[in-house]
Amino acid sequence: MSLDHTDRRRILTAGLLLPVGLMNAGGTVGASTTSVRTDIDTGVAGIVARWESTNLVDVLNATHHWAYLCRQLGSRGRDWQLTTGRVALLSARAHADLGETTMALAEAQKARVLGRACGDTATEAEATLVAAEVHDAVAPDSAIPLQMTRAARRRAGTSWLGVAAASIEAAILARGGPGSASDVIDVLRDADTAARLLPEPRPGEFSPGQLAAFGGCALIRAGRPDEATARLSDAVFDEHAAPGMASAVLVYRASAAVAGRRFDEGAALAGRALDVSAQRPTAWLAASVRGQAQTAGGKGGYDALVGRLGGWPAAATV
Questions:
Q1: How many whole angstroms separate alpha carbon 195 and alpha carbon 205?
Q2: Contacts of 293 (CB under 8 A, 6+ apart)
């Protein structure tokens, strides 16, 4: 849901007045705060389910407000800690995609600590993955991302989150280039096996289509563009319902084309990715297109694509 200035002011004002109203409500304080926490949990679940189609600025507008309510109304009780951790995780994901690495890591660490304290394994593991991906993006030579990803995979076990962790592990391993291909293929094979044992994912959970997409990305990095293209053919997403993943698949296919020296094809696919993601720009997609343009030496129309990235977010260093 996109919030204009008036909507944001109304919500903020309500948030500022709510604690006072609850203090004056006598015996209804507990019930009222429980209702607020339930509303926050419902809002978080709604954004998670619509993640690939929700503008990231709108995500941060919502999480800033919810975090404020958690601070004002929350207690040290487990239920509020669970809610606070899930809000922090959502914030970390949005900051990471916008390239705001310092905030992403801070929010991910908050989510990890709260998840661990509450026994919320999913929040702890997913927050660890967010932090691992941020580290991998800004410090690809570090051993930290792989260590964190493997820890998250162990915590997640045989679940869709565990499959997500395996796909990220494969992508990080693939930083080693062609020499890492066998390890990458082994991890993806494990992920494929686990995915076949799992029930249909719920909205917002990692999915077989995402495994195909991220596995394709890992194979491109590992110098296996033909195998990547075959895997990416199984990653189909509606450009209107899930523009985030649709643009990801397009830019991964563009990377495979560039690896095969098909620069015109790569530029056409990358251009479509920018079109699809125009209302939901992300730092990682912009970085991918810039990297492709550098490899292509500006050929195939990549110079024009780079010119379109002037207003897109860019990742900072940790």
A1: 12
A2: 302, 303, 305, 306
Q: What letter represents residue 149's amino acid? A: T
Q: Which two tokens stand for residue 174?
A: 């693939």
317 and 101 Cβ atoms separated by less than 8 Å: yes
Q: Which helix (H) or strand (E) holds 24?
A: none
What pTM did the predictor assign? 0.88
Q: Report the alpha-carbon distance of residue 25 to residue 196 in Å, rounded.
A: 52
Written as six digits, the tokens of 183 are: 């390890």
- Residue 315 CB-half CA count within 13 A: 23
Pick from 228, 129, 249, 213: nearest CA to 178: 228
Beta strand extents in the chain (DSSP E only): none
Are 309 and 286 contacting, i.e. CB atoms less than 8 angstroms apart?
Answer: yes
Q: Which residue has the tokens 């199984």?
A: 234
To the nearest 5 percent, what fractions of the chain are helix, strand and coil?
Answer: 80, 0, 20
Average pLDDT, 10 consecutive residues per value, the chain (318 residues): 34 34 39 87 97 96 96 86 97 97 97 97 98 92 95 97 98 94 97 97 96 97 93 95 97 95 97 97 96 94 94 73
Q: Report how far apart, in Å, the C-alpha atoms of 62 and of each of 40, 124, 212, 254, 318 are.
A: 9, 21, 31, 33, 25
Residue 249 contacts residue 237 (beta carbons within 8 Å): yes
**CA-to-CA dists, residue 64 to 61, 87, 94, 107, angstroms:** 5, 9, 11, 11
Residue labelled with tokens 């792989």: 146
- What length is written for the chain? 318
User: Would you state the structure tokens that stand for residue 69, as one six-digit string?
Assistant: 């309510």
Q: Which two tokens stand for residue 224?
A: 């296996």
Tell me the one-letter amino acid at 115: G
Token pair recorded at residue 299 = 């050929």
Q: Is the dihedral of CA 178, 183, 186, 188 positive or negative?
A: negative
